[in-house]
Amino acid sequence: RTGFEDWPEPERKRHLLRLWLSVPGDRPLPDCFTERFGTTTIGNRGGIVVPG
């Protein structure tokens, strides 16, 4: 996937929303994602964990 590139003119700029879904029957994530997401359980993955 390539990086997001927006228009230079303010009136043409877009909002970017990236959405990651975790649905039942999804593929498993490696354990290294646990620190970032809190859990890698399929169908129960949280958002990014922010300290504080």
What is the typical, i.e. mean, pLDDT?
81
Strand-residue proportion: under 5%
What is the end-to-end distance?
A: 32 Å
- The structure class reads little secondary structure
Identify the overall geometry.
Answer: elongated
How many β-strand runs? 0
Helix tally equals 1
Amount of helix? under 10%
Please give a structural write-up:
- The mean pLDDT is 81.
- The chain has one helix at 34-37.
- It is elongated, with a radius of gyration of 16 Å.
- The chain is built from one helix and no strands.
- It is 8% helix and 0% strand.
- It has one domain.
- The protein is largely without helices or strands and 52 residues long.
SSE layout and pairing:
Blueprint: H1 34-37
Describe the structure concisely for a colleague:
By secondary structure, the chain is mostly loops. The protein contains one helix and no strands. Helix content is 8%, strand content 0%.
List its traits.
0% strand, 52 residues, little secondary structure
